[in-house]
Amino acid sequence: MAFKVQGQVAIITGASSGIGRASALQLAEAGFNVALGARQVEKLETLAAEIKGMTGREVFVMSLDVREEQQVSAFVTAVKNHFGRIDVLLNNAGLAKGVMPVIEESNVANWDAMLDTNVRGLLLMTREAVPHMIEGGNGHVINLGSIAGREAYAGGAVYCASKFAVRAITDALRQELLGKPVRITTVDPGMVETEFSVVRLGDKDKADAVYTNMTPLSAEDIADCVVYAATRPKHVNIDAIIVKPLDQAGAGKVARR
Ligand SMILES: NC(=O)c1ccc[n+]([C@@H]2O[C@H](COP(=O)([O-])OP(=O)(O)OC[C@H]3O[C@@H](n4cnc5c(N)ncnc54)[C@H](O)[C@@H]3O)[C@@H](O)[C@H]2O)c1
């Protein structure tokens, strides 16, 4: 059953494209006022106008690089000051570039970029948002993991390491936050057709070659899962939502080079 919320506020990181963009739209349709963070503010402004036109919700936009501690702190403070509350944090921002090199061709710079975005960025955002959630008596951290954080085959070693870390952080924080009014969920997709998956697979031709054997999920499919988790009643915690194209279900090894 679909629930609607009223007056709640959701932060979406990496909202300028793909799953983040679709989730921002659908969370607004479900009743959330939304705070959009990404490095490309122009794209966020366009999305904000679209959301306002479609839903009438309030939208806050600010430049955000989740790797930068001071930017994260300033962003979360600005959202709290603007809306007076933070109910949902969707840690969606993720990096694909740098997964492509095989281990013998990879370097410290692309390992760091990957782990700083997918892991440290998520930790920074969560650390800043959770106290406001506890103070407000309601919170839900939703992390974009991946089946790469479960099956360890998709996307290369460093990407897998980052997504296993996302799952570990999610499970550990759930324990750490026991007794506090903050829920925590991972949404773990298989192949989704976004800019990210095209980059991850190297180029459009390669991506299409994979897609010929598979009907990938859409960003909207994943946004549906995000909205489902975000709109459950407060006493319901969904630990994880694992969602794959049918062709990947049970396959284990996916999207290999
Ligand atoms: N596409 C897939 O097949 C797939 C599968 C499983 C999980 N995911 C996860 O879903 C999430 C979204 O990916 P997507 O497929 O929508 O790709 P995408 O490239 O369209 O979106 C990623 C977003 O993150 C933003 N971003 C990257 N680095 C950032 C930073 N330092 N600070 C702020 N924003 C930053 C990008 O600008 C972009 O808006 C990622 O965490 C990804 O790992 C994607």
TrEMBL record:
Signal peptide: none annotated. One of its GO terms (molecular function) is oxidoreductase activity, acting on the CH-OH group of donors, NAD or NADP as acceptor. Belongs to the short-chain dehydrogenases/reductases (SDR) family. This is NADP-dependent 3-hydroxy acid dehydrogenase YdfG. The keyword Lipid biosynthesis does not apply. Keywords: Oxidoreductase. It comes from Tumebacillus permanentifrigoris. It comes from the Bacteria.
